Amino acid sequence: MKHAFTMLELIAVIVIVAILSVVMIPRFSDDKLREVADQVISHIRYTQHLAMIDNKYDAQKSDWYKERWQIFFSKSSDSSLGNAWAYTIFSDAFTHTGKPDPTEVASDPENSGKKLTGGYTSGGSGIEYSDSRSTPSMNIERTYGIKDVVFQNCGNSAKRISFDNLGRPYYGDLSTSTDPYSRLIKNQCRIVLCETTCGSAANDEKVIIAIEPETGYVHML
After folding, report:
1. Which of 3, 110, 169, 178 is most deeply packed, by most CB within 10 A?
2. b/e per residue 84-101 (b: at least 16 CB within 10 A)
């Protein structure tokens, strides 16, 4: 004898699935920490990609390594909105000041009119968050509510990671370095993004991104 679902059983299953959908979908859509981690990881990998295809080595220039592609986290000043955590992908190609010039910021590969920055200031120049050229999602405080950024094992004071043509990661501000390889990352570097001050943030208020030495492999812990 063949068994089949009754109409009542089918309706019950549909109702249960609908209830689970209502409960679960908002949890995924509100998971800002996971979203910001995925985005930052993607942009770190893109920075590494730029470095590998744009080898900065130049035997005619003693400070060629200062031009390596890097991802730089900083508080971005906006004349109308105030300070907020953001990050920028750039190559310090012309001034070697350690601060990005608008001409040094990477362009969005999907939209050449956009720059890969969430806003920053650099002396009298810069691209603010409100600038039409900025990428708002890279302003991680305004978009994702990130209130603090901490680097562990890779120079917390200068929150930036750069890469060489082999994809190897370096820490710190290369504009103050005197050797091409002195700031090569030799231990796992961790970037902690927190919804409050990282020193007091609970586990569900922060996310940790790890960058492995030598390979530059980046992943979420």
Report:
1. 169
2. bbbbbbbbbbeeeebbbb
